[in-house]
Write a structure and sequence with these properties.
By secondary structure, this protein is mostly beta strands. 4% of the residues lie in helices and 30% in strands. The protein is globular.
């Protein structure tokens, strides 16, 4: 269950992106060949479609929503590899006339090379998203390029003033394995003109040593920051709220593996924090309730971007709160893989679910019939 409401614009323009598609398709279908096959990359989609321009209602614009559905369906599951930073720029959006980039498949709680992934870097960041109203879901993004400062991943900047709202959900953001000389912000609403930034069911992982203070997993520079069921791992600081006055609403946020602080939250912001957990002592630095510090988290394989919680976990399992009914900010009922969260929610993007492998009674195996226990 997602919090994306039904479209209110007159028209939704949907285009498809698949790196395994043939060249020169017009993106109107998800086919891998033919004149109407998918665009080969998000960059091609953006360059072809940004001339469409104003998505707002008439008389200014076209009253549309622009949707890019990304997938990787070829036998080799080719990555969407960037040669330059992907800029989402040149549009005019509104609250009901937004750009949506979403994966065609649910992700799991780990990086998966068999599904669509956007990879690149080597410049300022993998992406530079400059539009006011953008929604991203089911997207894998990784910085795979070389060294240098500013090795960001999903970066929102140079936003036009006058209102904005950014949503990121059900996604995995992975940083470049920096040396101790360089820094980067991995999920970063870094423009003061972003009014509201919401992220839920998101994994953010820094693969570097995090010794430089500007290595940050989630970096907000004063925007109203709303996070729910987020797993932030690594960096110098895993989650940081900047110095400008703003609101920060955090629920079920797991932060761990940082070199300096799992949470570093400015004293000048207004906080509403509950059911968050840290490996260090910082989860309760700005007050709130049901906050858990000095926790030990058990992931399947964090070093290789597998953040499935193990059944033996004691830091996140059954320590969260249900977000289904919090309609004023969030309203969702699943985890990053689309699995329904049950019982007491877990903290972070993953919900541990018992194995569905059937257990057979010994007598049933022998006699092959029904076994009735009285």
């Amino acid at each position: 269950a997602k919090i994306i409401p039904p479209a209110r614009a007159v028209t939704t323009n949907t285009f498809y992106v698949d790196p395994d598609a043939a060249a020169s398709g017009d993106g109107t279908t998800n086919a891998l060949s033919g004149a109407n096959c998918a665009f080969q990359s998000l960059s091609i989609w953006e360059n072809a479609r940004d001339n469409f321009g104003d998505l707002r209602p008439a008389p200014d614009g076209n009253d549309t929503i622009e949707v890019a559905v990304v997938d990787s369906n070829g036998a080799g599951h080719t990555a969407d590899t960037l040669t330059a930073r992907l800029l989402i720029d040149g549009w005019t959006t509104g609250p009901d006339n937004y750009i949506e980039i979403r994966g065609a498949k649910d992700l799991d709680s780990k990086w998966d090379d068999s599904k669509y992934r956007l990879v690149g870097g080597g410049g300022y960041s993998v992406t530079g998203i400059r539009e006011q109203y953008v929604r991203i879901s089911k997207l894998q993004v990784k910085n795979t390029a070389g060294t240098g400062n500013g090795q960001g991943v999903l970066v929102f900047n140079t936003i036009v003033a006058g209102g904005s709202e950014i949503w990121v959900s059900d996604s995995i953001i992975v940083g470049f394995p920096e040396t101790d000389l360089y820094w980067g912000w991995l999920l970063s609403p870094e423009d003061a003109d972003i009014v509201t930034f919401k992220a839920w069911n998101v994994i953010v992982q820094d693969r570097g040593p995090g010794t430089v203070s500007s290595c940050v997993g989630i970096q907000s520079l004063g925007q109203n920051l709303y996070l729910a069921n987020v797993t932030a791992y690594g960096s110098n600081t895993a989650v940081r709220q900047g110095t400008a006055t703003a609101n920060a609403y955090l629920r079920n946020v797991l932060a761990a593996g940082s070199a300096a602080a799992d949470f570093a939250m400015s004293a000048s912001a207004t906080y509403n924090v509950a059911y968050c957990a840290s490996e260090d002592l910082t989860a309760d630095d700005r007050g709130g309730y049901n906050l858990f510090t000095s926790q030990t988290f058990s992931f399947a394989d964090a070093a290789n971007s597998d953040f499935h919680l193990l059944s033996s976990d004691t830091g996140a399992l059954d320590k969260g709160t249900n977000m289904t009914a919090t309609t004023s900010v969030f309203s969702f009922s699943d985890d990053i893989s689309g699995a329904t969260r049950n019982g007491i929610w877990d903290i972070g993007a993953d919900e541990w679910v018992p194995s569905s492998t059937p257990i057979y009674l010994y007598e049933d195996l022998i006699f092959g019939g029904d076994v009735i226990l009285e």
